[in-house]
Amino acid sequence: LLAALFLLAGLLLAARDAGLPVRISPSLDARLAFQMQRAGVHAPTNAPAPSPELVKLGEALFWDPELSGNRDIACATCHLPTFGGGDGLAVSIGAGGRGLGSLRERASIREFVARNAQPLFNLGHLEWQNRFWDGRVFVDEAGRLHSPASDRLPPGLESTLAAQALFPVTSREEMRGHRGDTDTFGQRNELAMIDDYTLTAIWQGLMQRLLALPGYQALFAAGYPDLDPAQWDVAHAANAIAAYEISAFTFADSPFDRYLAGDRAALSPAARRGALLFYGKAQCAACHSGPLLSDQQFHNLALPQIGEGKGREQPFDLGRARETGNDCDRFAFRTPPLRNVALTAPYMHNGAFATLPDVIRHHLDPATGLRQYDPDRLHPTLELHNGPEQQAAILRWYTPIPTDGLRLTDAEFADLIVFLDALTSPSARHLEHLTPASVPSGLPPGGL
Q1: Does 79 fall in a domain?
Q2: For residues 55 and 162, what is the distance between their CA atoms, to the nearest angstrom?
Q3: Which region holds residue 405: left if phi is over 0, alpha if psi is between -120 and 50, else beta?
Q4: Can you give the residue range of the structural domain that contains 16?
Q5: 62 lies in some domain
């Protein structure tokens, strides 16, 4: 059906552009089909389904605080199914924090994690080429994985998603903790004693922890039945975590996805008008393009500096420039995908906005949005660096984006919001059932 609409829309619009008489006005569906075709929209490609046993191992690893230095935080702590695969915070609270979701509090002596926890929805599609807000894990055209670990990246990783899973466990702020820390049981945190850049030693220490537990010995044996236990390494753990994330967080039943599959009734008239704006006048698809609704490129959107920043450039977080060394990449961050975006607030790399209308308004005039940013919704102990000097530094490297200066009527604005909501899968709205009753370590699933 959509192919026929593509053809009809193309013929009608080509005839109009050629100055030929066109007596039939293209339907909303025909115009939308044409715009979506121009934007390269199609259903994303699924990876092969992992085995149930591998998913079960990945589930345990994802939820178990045993993977953190202090045994107090799990992958799930910052990527909760009940918070849209994030944690509901502008920027995350890592090692040393207590509580889950938006109620989580940090230890007074610890920094916030520098960036917003990215949602986990639909991250297993084969079109994905890079990971993290700054793209520091990526695959090149020859299929080779690249990462901050360079040649220390363990062999056998099956995807960029698996490679990504290796790095939060090495970060002191996120999961590993700091020298001198003790764990939940009062024991010395041995992972925190390892030097920061000896990643292999950190990963080996983590595997020693896991394989000392009978529950993980059984899960690894089931997940990798053809391997001798002496061959199990951190790449197998990372592949299992990726398998679980793909199995648990991939959804294709949103109204938008059903429309792509040929169900014309899946999108309401308002959602179709919003989609026509998204792929047309509003130019959202200039960046949120293709099957992932992301160009996987990096853009400076003139966002305020929230939090302590990252690395030597504190209080700034220079984003992509930290990886490339190119000044033109300062304050640029990867375009986020949009499936289930209505569930994943707060938004942007630093959680600057609590609602989708706020995000859209900022895109219409980023420079003014930066200057007039209202920090009232931020955590009371979270620092905002948004004085004239900081604003000037960010705007120096800002290049106007396609939406800058765009005018939308109230009706168009409302239709655009309706379309963004139509990217939500009903199956993703209630994921409480994903929380396991227990994990092999016996620690609370999801962290303390």
Answers
A1: yes
A2: 13
A3: left
A4: 2-29
A5: yes
Tell whether the model's pLDDT for residue 16 goes beyond 60.
Answer: no
Looking at the fold, whether 80 and 117 belong to one and the same domain comes out as yes
Is 90 in contact with 306 (CB distance < 8 Å)? Answer: yes
What sign for the dihedral angle of Cα 7, 9, 14, 15? Answer: positive
The dihedral sign for the CA sequence 258, 416, 348, 395 = positive
The structure tokens listed for 293 are: 């609704």
**Euclidean distance between CA atoms 158 and 317, whole angstroms:** 30
In this structure, the answer to whether residues 20 and 102 fall within a common structural domain is no
Check: CB of residue 138 under 8 Å from CB of residue 164. no
Global pTM reads 0.92
In this structure, how many other beta carbons lie within 10 angstroms of the beta carbon of residue 376?
Answer: 5
CA 99 to each of CA 67, 80, 95, 444: distance values in angstroms, whole numbers, following the listed order: 17, 12, 11, 11
Bridge partners (DSSP) of residue 151 are none
The verdict on residue 316 lying in a domain is: yes
Confidence of residue 25 (pLDDT cuts 50, 70, 90): low
Give which of 296, 279, 301 is closest to 337, Cα–Cα: 296
| Other residues' Cβ atoms within 10 Å of the Cβ of residue 49 | 13
* Integer Cα distance of 283 and 255 in angstroms: 21
> What digits encode the pLDDT tens for the residues 47-67?
999 999 999 999 999 999 999
Asked if 196 and 176 touch (Cβ cutoff 8 Å), the reply is: no
Same structural domain, 341 and 289? yes
DSSP class of residue 386 equals: -
Neighbours of 312 (CB within 10 A): 8
* pLDDT per position as a tens digit, 371-393: 999 998 788 889 999 999 999 99
**Do residues 158 and 63 both lie within one domain?**
yes
Q: Say if residue 235 is in the same domain as residue 300.
A: no
- Among residues 103, 59, 90, 120, the alpha carbon closest in space to that of 446 is found at 59
Contact 138, 323 (CB under 8 A): no
Q: Which pair of tokens denotes residue 302?
A: 């003139």
How many domains is the chain built from?
3
Encode pLDDT of 143-174 as tens digits: 999 999 999 999 999 999 999 999 999 999 99
In a domain, 264, yes or no: no
Q: What are the helix and strand counts (H, E) for the chain?
A: 15, 7
Tokens of 397: 């490297």
Give whole-number Cα distances, 212 to 56, 63, 87, 183, 204, in Å.
18, 18, 30, 17, 12
| Nearest-angstrom CA–CA distance, 285 and 402 | 10
Identify the CATH number of the domain in which residue 219 sits.
Answer: 1.10.760.10
